[in-house]
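This is your field. Please look over both lines of this record.
***
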Amino acid sequence: MGHPFPIREIARQAGLSEATVDRVLNGRGGVRESTAREVHRAIADLDRQRTQVRLVGRTFMLDIVMQSPERFSTAVRTALEAELPSLHPAVVRSRHHFRETGPAAALVAVLDRIRRRGSQGVILKAPDVPEVTAAVGRLAAAGIPVVTLVTDLPASARIGYVGSDNRAAGATAAYLMEQWLGERPGNVLTSLSSGFFRNEEEREMGFRSAMRARRPGRTLVEITEGQGLDATQYDLVRAALERDPEIRAVYSIGGGNIATLRAFEDAGRECAVFLAHDLDHDNTRLLREHRLSAVLHHDLRHDLREACHLVMRAHGALPPAGPTLPSAIQVVTPYNMPATATG
């Protein structure tokens, strides 16, 4: 039978002599059937363990590049560090390049510096704009695999996307919104950090489509470009509340929720339903205080683990696998907070 393992290695795995293994492999007889089965089982075990052998001593230096508010980049860093022990026997080290806002050119400059310096892989959260897509292409041409995290760049040369199905997340938010608002009148404020992040655009489309189907008369009021930062978010929400006295619920797609709640309070307005995304430290605290109705959450540790595995496969350190499935969407309330939530 064909296999890549030397007789000495098979004998050690099976706990048999090399002569016995040689007789089994060459069909020379004089060996009990149970012994022959042990030899074949040892070969199968070695084949399964080849992945571990390939990973022993391998170090993967990854660059994590993100444009996001500090609260989310901190959550990503924490999730990655928690997953590192599970990636053994490989060693994964990471360099972090986090920025809250800024022009796409600055992000492209970071990606180009990584390309010139070298890296085993890039995990990227970035706006879906042509210059970023082109920078990903240059990384791929240099042999540096790129995995998109949370928000995708589908037209780029990235090797995969890890995160949730954002249209389904938006539709889930619409379902919850109508369950809680019911027949009560009122408009819904939808808040995006930027129109250039595909995940936010897809959440908004899923939400709008499901709301139109469930409650076509409900008005949706959109604000955008707050970058998920409290300082800019407050002004946008306060202006929206002044323009529209019928807003009584919020679907926060892009964050800045402390500022949104403060704007409602300063305007003397009630927020009857408030749905948000991600259990970062702000949302965890707000949920525990019952100031958010629910948070749509997905397991960042799972996402980071999958991203690392995609990079390892790109380098031939793990065997090929099927397509990466979207992360499960969890509806988290104050009464089913994950044990790992902090805030």
In short: The two ends are 57 Å apart (CA to CA). The CA atoms of residues 64 and 297 lie 21 Å apart.
